[in-house]
C-alpha cells in the first residue's frame, strides 16, 4: 500500500509535476475538520432546495464543493463532494448513488486544476473558472455514462441535466470567487 501511495503521489499535469498528497505543512486541525463538516452539511442542505429559473430549477449544492476545492485543494474538495451530495443522491426517486462520486470528481478536479492554474498571473477569477470548467469536462462523461447506462435515463434527459449542471457550476464558481476574494480560507484555518 505504501508503494501505491508513493506512485500516485505525483502526477504530470501540463508538463509539470503536481503533488497529489495533502500539503506537508497543512495539519489536520480541529478548524479544518470543522470546516469540512460544515461544507458537507451546507452542500447537503443546498441539495434539498431548488431555485426556479423559467421552466427549470437549479441547485447550488456545488457551491461548497467548488469553494472547498479552490480554497483547500483536491482532497478536501473531493471529500466535500462525496459526503456533501448524500442528501440529494438519496432524496431522488429512484435513488442515484452515482451522484456521490460525480460530485467528488467535481471537487477533486477543481482543486487539482486550481493547484496548477492558480499560479497564473491574471485576475484570480480566470483560473478559478477554467479549473471548474476543466472539472466539469472530466465529470460530464461520468454523469452521462452512469445516468444513461446504469440509471437507464433517456439520453436527451441526461443532456438536459448536463446543461443545467454546467450552469450551476458556473454560478457556483462566480459565488465562490466573491467569497474567496473576501476571505483567505486556507489562512483562516491555520
Derived structural class? mainly alpha
Number of strands: 4
Shape: globular
Helix content: 55-70%
CATH structural class: Mainly Alpha
Radius of gyration: 16 Å
**Main β sheet profile:** 2 strands, antiparallel
CATH topology-level name:
Arp2/3 complex 21 kDa subunit ARPC3
Strand composition percent: 5-15%
Order the strands across the largest sheet as they lie in space: 1-2
Ends apart, CA distance between termini: 30 Å
Low-confidence stretches: 1-9, 12-16
Mean pLDDT: 88
| Pattern of helices and strands | HEEHEEHHHHHHH
Question: Could you explain how this protein is built, in words?
Answer:
The chain has 190 residues and is mostly helical. It has a single domain, classed as Arp2/3 complex 21 kDa subunit ARPC3 (Orthogonal Bundle). The chain is 69% helix and 7% strand. It contains nine helices and four strands; from the N terminus they run H-E-E-H-E-E-H-H-H-H-H-H-H. The strands form two sheets. A two-stranded antiparallel ribbon has the order 1-2. A two-stranded antiparallel sheet has the order 3-4. A hairpin with a 2-residue loop joins strand 1 and strand 2 (16-19). The protein is globular, with a radius of gyration of 16 Å. The model is unreliable at 1-9 and 12-16 (pLDDT under 50).
Summarize this entry quickly.
By secondary structure, the chain is mainly α.
Features:
about 190 residues; mainly alpha; two-stranded antiparallel sheet; 9 helices; single chain
Write the layout of secondary structure elements.
Layout: H1 2-8, E1 10-13, E2 16-19, H2 30-48, E3 51-53, E4 56-58, H3 62-72, H4 74-84, H5 86-91, H6 98-117, H7 125-150, H8 155-182, H9 185-188
Antiparallel strand pairs: 1-2, 3-4
Helix pairs in contact: 2-3, 2-4, 3-4, 3-6, 3-8, 4-6, 6-7, 7-8
Amino acid at each position: 500500500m505504501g508503494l501505491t501511495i508513493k506512485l500516485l503521489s505525483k502526477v504530470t499535469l501540463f508538463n509539470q509535476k503536481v503533488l497529489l498528497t495533502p500539503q506537508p505543512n497543512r495539519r489536520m486541525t480541529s478548524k479544518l475538520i470543522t470546516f469540512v463538516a460544515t461544507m458537507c452539511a451546507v452542500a447537503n442542505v443546498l441539495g434539498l432546495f431548488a431555485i426556479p429559473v423559467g421552466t427549470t430549477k437549479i441547485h447550488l449544492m456545488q457551491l461548497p464543493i467548488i469553494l472547498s476545492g479552490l480554497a483547500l485543494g483536491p482532497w478536501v474538495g473531493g471529500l466535500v463532494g462525496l459526503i456533501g451530495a448524500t442528501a440529494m443522491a438519496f432524496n431522488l426517486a429512484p435513488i442515484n448513488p452515482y451522484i456521490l462520486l460525480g460530485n467528488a470528481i467535481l471537487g477533486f478536479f477543481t482543486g487539482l486544476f486550481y493547484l496548477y492554474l492558480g499560479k497564473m498571473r491574471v485576475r484570480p477569477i480566470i483560473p478559478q473558472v477554467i479549473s471548474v470548467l476543466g472539472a466539469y469536462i472530466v465529470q460530464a462523461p461520468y454523469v452521462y455514462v452512469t445516468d444513461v447506462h446504469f440509471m437507464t435515463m433517456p439520453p436527451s434527459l441526461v443532456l438536459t441535466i448536463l446543461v443545467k449542471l454546467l450552469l450551476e457550476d458556473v454560478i457556483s464558481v462566480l459565488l465562490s470567487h466573491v467569497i474567496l476574494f473576501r476571505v483567505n480560507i486556507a489562512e483562516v484555518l491555520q
